[in-house]
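Long-time lurker. I teach an intro course on protein structure, and each term I like to show students one example going from raw sequence to a predicted 3D structure in token notation. This year I'd like something fresh instead of my usual example. Would anyone be willing to generate the tokens for the chain below so I can use it in lecture? Attribution to the forum is fine with me.
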Amino acid sequence: MKLSLNWIKQYVDLPADLTMAKLSYDLTMSTVEVEGAVSLSDNLAGLVIGRILTVEPHPDADKLRICTVDVGDPAPSTIVCGGVNLAPAQLVVVAKPGAWVKWHGEGDPVEIKPAKLRGVMSFGMICASGEIGLGELFPASEHAEIMDVSEFDAKPGTPVAEALGLDDIILEIDNKSMTNRPDLWGHYGMARELAAIYKCPLKPIEPAELPACADGLEVVIEDSERCPRYLGLVIRNIKNVPSPFELRSMLWRVGSRPINLPVDITNYLMFATGEPTHAFDSQHVGGRIRVRRAAPGEKLELLDGELLDLTEEDLVIANETKPMALAGIMGGKLDSILPETTDVILEIANFEALGIRRSSQRFDVRTEGSARWEKGIDPQRVDITAAMAVKMFREAFPEAVISGCVDNYPKQLECAKVEVSLDFLRKRLGREISAEEVKEILSPLGFKTEAKDGLLLVEAPSWRSTGDISLPDDILEEAARLMGYENFEFSPPTVLLDKAVNQRLPDMERALREYLAFRCGMQEIFTYPWIEDEYISASGAETEEMLELSTPPAPNEARLRSTLVPGLLKAVVTNLRYFTDFRIFELTQVFFDRNYSSISGTDELLPEMARRLGAAFVGSDARALFREAKGTLEYMHRAVQMEPLSFEQREKPAWGDEKLWVNVIRGGEIIGALALVSPRCAKAAGIKRSLALIFELDVEKLVPLPSRQNVFSHLPAYPLADFDLSIVFDENVRWEEIEAIARKAELVRDVKFIDEYRGAQIGAGKKSVTFRTWVGSDKGTLTSEQIENVSKQVVKKIGKKFGGDVRGAQ
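-- Reply from a regular --
Happy to contribute to a lecture. Here you go:
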């Protein structure tokens, strides 16, 4: 959104020493993101007003003229120009040497230099409006028409920005940063914000005296949910004439194309207060305005010529016989301001945000008005807009009469009230703050604050009560941002480092992706959750439990996926345009219209969701594809460290081939399917000249296994020695018991199983266990005698516990 700094200054006197860099920084830190600030005077640097003294033909060029021009210098300048409307005494825009212009209004800017044109030196350029970026403000009526500014009282040599009153700065605001701030979508709202930031008084918009009579106008609101308020002003004796330059200039600065005086006033009101308005030709209204839902079969031709087939979900402004406008979005072509219009009905209304957004998306019609209504404008804004409208129409048309007014306001807006404790604010701000300080901060923004027993009852103004302010955290945000986030001292958090949590499920999900991408060489894809109907039908997926979107991105993309197969089919078709052999996979969520659950105890419900893993193998050899995909699944449990999978033919998937398919089994339960895409499915999906094999698994049914527990131990300071023992035990003695006893011996560092033997030499019911023992000391290298003593100690402890018989040792 573009904002004019001069326009803002009409409503607030900003500090005299405030720089543009400071304003942009403060506004970005506290309120909205300023993406840029463009100085109109900088863009017009080097351009001055010139008065043409003489116009002579060029001796060597029929279309060129030689002009002497007074540009404020001691001597006139000679300029060669091809303009078709040059005349002596005419005031024009001259680009002096060193200025930059767009040649014929096209391409990149070029620097003007003294140059010889067909043998005549030219010291500058007489400009067309398109060559200096003013084409929309001064539209040319024919090609090669230079910009005539004779209507302005300016002396030669005056900078153009000064002469035209364009010494202004245009702020470019990021729209996303103020999506939840409908009060900022007009210059007055932004002026209020800057007044609060710099503690300057905001100039009030003086209320206007509206007529007490209706002058024959009747307003009927049939849907007060979609239209809480509708004010109609009857204005007579106006003319459809061009707007004065000042009004055209203000609209041009913020990116709006001037049209005519009545329409430009309505647009000015929108950019000033943020409240979209519209004017109807009174002759076409017929005395009665109905705000209603469209009837089946009704049509409406918009101002831009587009013909709409309306639905019952669309709100329209109608007379007794037909719709005249798509409410809050655009007026009708036949019922708005016409060349012969003299009396108008000025609409200053309020419309529900969601309904406007849905109609705007349904017809793909986006306007400045609809963009504002979608944010949630408050009904009370009608009052200041009406006051400003009355003033502007009376000043623009002194002979005009505001003869009637109807204000239908069936659904009053209640201002939001929030109770917040001072302790809540202090704890989260990290500093002391009193009730008076909170009141002082919030008051310039229009909030009313009452303190009682450590609690603050805060009432938001109407322009912040349409969803923006509702929680204590919202009050916290208002206080913090106006105090200045950069003014809070940094306090590092206290962090207690504990052992890492072994999250098996997330680790398994990551391992699955890494296994398929790195070991199997597959490409991971990401698809939208909504699926085209043609791929759902091709896959044979059941649609009964699929969720349907209320506002789908396209009519054939209304369902959310309950399986990954349709999305994989589409991905195969898309990639077959470039490749004939490839491997792709996706691990993501699917959705079901069942088993709804609440979120953290709120009234909001979420449907059942589950994670699925799907993959597609595309090539020309069906058996090779099947073996590759099956091998991928067979080895998966070893690479990912999960329970193994098995395969059986139990239930053929709807999209699978009659023969080449299997179900994927875990724990006796079907958790997925692997199959070659059937000819029927491939034809319906549009898969040509290649074969595709797909598998899909329910990731929720995969069971990760515990990982190894690695323990750090120091390397030995001195070399370890080892010896082997073979001891005969009873058959029922377990290795873990032998190991535990052996480790109890002094200087033993490790014990490992080597072998186990049974045979006639050792007798029935016996077994010989061979194991290796490592010994060592932190004080020095062990001697042969010390090693022998440890060996004897191990044998003695084992013999005492199990009665083992030593048959051999090394």
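Some talking points for your students: The longest strand covers residues 582-598. The chain has a mean pLDDT of 92.
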